[in-house]
Amino acid sequence: MRYVILMLGLLLLVPHAPTLAAERDHPEARPYDKKAEASLAVNAALKQAGQTGKRVILVMGANWCHDSRGLAGWFEKPRFANMLRDRYEVVYVDVGKRNRNIDIAQRFGIEKIVGTPTVLVLSPEGELLNPDSAPTWRNAASRDADDIYAHFESFEVERADKNEEAGGKQESR
């Protein structure tokens, strides 16, 4: 009888096993708030970045989008969160069905949201540092975690003391 109960218990877990593995491999979050004052959040992040020398990651996506949720999920993992906290101010902007807050993308030189997420990396002064890669994140959920990490780790922080050491010159990456 114990054997039968044990087997029934195990069978109940089988349909959930692929789901659990998928969640572990591709975490998801839902940080996109359509009611948020996106322009205010972006301005606040740029102001904070100006004070700290960090960059700004502006993730333009939506909760309906698997890739937008997937990238946000990776950003919540401790490995990513630690690196991002030291280097970036991160802002999530809801773009609806690519018809909301488009003026924010345009402010930084992205005329049209062709896919979600569109991920802008900005200097503390608001300069777009990744015009070529910004619109390429619409496959974020299927990208390798190490590749995503390496991409965002490659942008240097602009610390005031670093500027002085380098004679005031900075590379954008």
Automatic annotation (TrEMBL):
Entry keywords, A to Z: Isomerase, Signal
GO molecular function, one term: isomerase activity
Signal peptide: 1-21
Matching Gene3D superfamilies: Glutaredoxin (3.40.30.10)
Superkingdom of the source species: Bacteria
Pfam families from the UniProt entry: Thioredoxin_7
Name the record gives this protein: Thiol-disulfide isomerase or thioredoxin
Lineage: Bacteria, Pseudomonadati, Pseudomonadota, Alphaproteobacteria, Sphingomonadales
